């Protein structure tokens, strides 16, 4: 904003009234290469403050005026398909169609943008968007950015091919990526994508879960000050551990004597199991079993190494994402363990909210700190709706609704059609910030719009729809012009444009039918499984559930759209016709 450049570390200098007047990045310790050292800079600024305080105050005024301009929202625009068309075309223009992903190195996962590609193909019938997203997901999962034996994704790739990662693992990446990989499985029914989801969620269970069921924040990139030390291998070490099967494993994961990273090897897969099977006169299944068994042995050996440090702080918003990630995995795998992980975590936060009438931002050793921000409320409300869809437990709908109302009361700014990042009870800052960009994580405004839209269709609360619409309208033009920064919002816009299909499953007796429905890619749907008559009776006040009767002896499904509902259905082929 001040120089047209960004960077890290950032230094901001303030007046005694905490008004910024000078900012810059990466000042060297001493004067060098024409740049003032940090000490010299401090002396110059101190001298300016003493000799020309009025000039410093003017600089602070100018800085604050520019900050205020950044908070201005664009003029609302109409929501129609043309916004999605323009966004999809613009997004594909920055796509790397060779290696997947967007732009050049470094490459980040950008889950929401890939999800939008899936939705746009469904909307337009143009397959190249979906094909690009699938290519990206396969390239990522076969590259070094994915921990091939331990599961979970590293932060980003330093190269265009997804080979050499920055080895840090963030909870939010490993929450968002299982969702888009689950969508890829729903679309293709390719078990490759389901296995990525499993390995990622199993990693979180194994290494990132606290005793109370909440999830830790991150694992460091370094071990003993060396980047990736825990994760890389020497070929001789692998041969010693695996014995006769080492040749197959080393070819499968491109392990060489010289390595691909500072003399060591980052495991990455560039050959198919069927090709290896032909070479070694084995079936594809036999090769996959060998690779799996070898991976378990190496993971066991790796676990005995010194491990990277762990940030065991629990961040509420990131836990909300992780809950949604586990429920996405549950839907495509039917693995109850994933459901249980999600439930234990959300029950922790639901209980905390009841006790304190607010969400806290973080927990450390079970001790809460800081008032929750926009992201905490929005992400957790979204997770609670996800849990409600899977259980029909009224308490999860109530939790989501309470969080949504709290957002409206304490964060909403109707003058600019957006939520502030801080509530009206937070410490007052020089400006009250807003964030609208979906980058590493979706913005709180985008997720809040999603929450309110979903809740409206469940509860028919008109205020929820009005506010959701205002957020979408305020950002639609920017999203079309710069879709890379609005991936999640575009998915919300898709849902708004399509109008949700309401799928109510009454009685979970027919688990095979329910499993089949959950494995379908229906991004415009709100699918709620009502498990018992007590829940249905409690929910009957909402139009979504009214007029529907519970049958003890079988599972029936209602498909509704635009206030028109199907007859009660129990045959999968008949249900599919309604989609």
Number of strands: 18
Main sheet properties: 4 strands, mixed
Share in β-strands:
5-15%
Strand order of the largest sheet: 16-15-17-18
Helix content: 40-55%
**What would you call the shape?**
globular
* Count of individual helical segments: 21
What is the subunit arrangement here? single chain
What's the rounded overall pLDDT mean? 94
The stretches of 5 or more residues where confidence is low (pLDDT under 50) are none
Give an overview of the whole structure.
The chain is built from 21 helices and 18 strands. By secondary structure, the chain is of the alpha+beta class. It has 4 domains: 61 residues, no CATH class; 208 residues, no CATH class; 153 residues, Glycosyltransferase (Alpha/alpha barrel), CATH 1.50.10; 77 residues. β15, α19 and β16 form a beta-alpha-beta unit. α14 runs antiparallel to α15. The longest helix has 21 residues. The protein is globular. The mean pLDDT is 94.
Nutshell version of this structure?
The chain is α+β, with helices and mostly antiparallel strands and 579 residues long. The chain has helices spanning 38-51, 53-70, 81-93, 111-124, 127-142, 173-188, 191-207, 235-242, 246-252, 273-280, 284-303, 316-333, 336-356, 374-391, 394-411, 444-459, 462-481, 487-498, 511-518, 533-539, 572-577; strands spanning 10-14, 20-25, 156-157, 165-166, 169-170, 218-219, 222-223, 226-227, 310-311, 314-315, 360-364, 367-371, 412-413, 418-419, 501-506, 525-530, 556-561, 564-565.
């Amino acid at each position: 904003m001040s120089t047209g450049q960004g960077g890290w570390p950032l230094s901001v200098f303030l007046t005694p009234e905490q008004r910024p007047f000078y900012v810059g990045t990466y000042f060297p310790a001493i004067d060098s290469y024409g740049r003032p050292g940090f000490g010299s800079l401090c002396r110059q600024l101190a001298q300016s403050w003493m000799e020309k305080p009025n000039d410093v105050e003017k600089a602070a005024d100018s800085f604050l005026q520019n900050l205020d301009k950044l908070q201005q929202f664009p003029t609302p625009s109409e929501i129609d398909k043309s916004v999605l068309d323009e966004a999809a075309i613009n997004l594909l223009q920055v796509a790397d169609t060779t290696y997947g992903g967007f732009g050049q190195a470094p490459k980040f996962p950008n889950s929401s943008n890939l999800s939008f590609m899936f939705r746009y193909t469904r909307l337009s019938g143009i397959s190249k968007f979906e094909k690009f997203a699938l290519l990206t997901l396969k390239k990522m999962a076969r590259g070094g950015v994915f921990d091939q034996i331990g599961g979970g994704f590293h932060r980003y790739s330093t190269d265009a091919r997804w080979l050499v990662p920055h080895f840090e693992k963030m909870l939010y990446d490993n929450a968002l990526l299982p969702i888009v990989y689950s969508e890829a499985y729903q679309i293709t029914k390719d078990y490759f994508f389901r296995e990525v989801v499993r390995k990622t969620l199993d990693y979180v269970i194994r290494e990132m879960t606290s005793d109370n069921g909440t999830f830790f924040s991150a694992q460091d990139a370094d071990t003993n000050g060396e980047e990736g030390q825990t994760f890389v291998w020497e070929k001789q070490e692998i041969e010693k551990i695996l014995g006769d099967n080492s040749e197959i494993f080393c070819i499968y994961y491109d392990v060489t004597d010289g390595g691909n990273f500072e003399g060591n090897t980052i495991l990455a897969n560039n050959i198919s199991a069927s090709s290896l099977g032909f070479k070694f006169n084995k079936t594809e299944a036999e090769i996959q079993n060998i690779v799996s068994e070898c991976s378990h042995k190496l993971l066991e050996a790796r676990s005995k190494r010194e491990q990277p440090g762990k940030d065991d702080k629990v961040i509420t918003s990131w836990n909300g994402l992780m809950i949604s990630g586990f429920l996405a995995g549950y839907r495509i795998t039917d693995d109850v363990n994933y459901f249980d992980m999600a439930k234990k975590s959300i029950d922790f936060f639901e209980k905390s909210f009841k006790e304190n009438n607010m969400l806290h931002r973080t927990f450390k050793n079970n001790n809460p700190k800081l008032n929750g921000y926009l992201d905490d409320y929005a992400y957790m409300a979204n997770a609670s709706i996800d849990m409600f869809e899977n259980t029909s437990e009224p308490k999860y709908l109530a939790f989501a609704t309470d969080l949504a109302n709290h957002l409206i009361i304490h964060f909403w700014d109707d003058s600019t059609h957006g939520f502030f990042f801080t509530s009206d009870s937070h410490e007052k800052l020089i400006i009250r910030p807003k964030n609208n960009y979906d980058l590493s994580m979706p913005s709180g405004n985008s997720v809040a719009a999603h929450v309110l839209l979903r809740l409206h269709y469940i509860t028919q609360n008109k205020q929820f729809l009005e506010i959701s619409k205002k957020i979408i309208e305020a950002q639609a033009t920017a999203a079309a012009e710069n879709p890379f920064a609005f991936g999640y919002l575009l998915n919300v816009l898709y849902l708004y444009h399509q109008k949700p299909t309401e799928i109510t499953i009454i009685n979970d007796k027919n688990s095979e039918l329910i499993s089949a429905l959950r494995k379908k890619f229906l991004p415009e749907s709100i699918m709620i499984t009502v498990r018992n008559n007590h829940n249905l009776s409690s929910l009957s006040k909402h139009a979504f559930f009214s007029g529907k009767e519970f049958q003890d002896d079988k599972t029936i499904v209602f498909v509704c759209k635009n206030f028109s509902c199907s007859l009660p259905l129990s045959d999968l082929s008949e249900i599919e016709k309604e989609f």
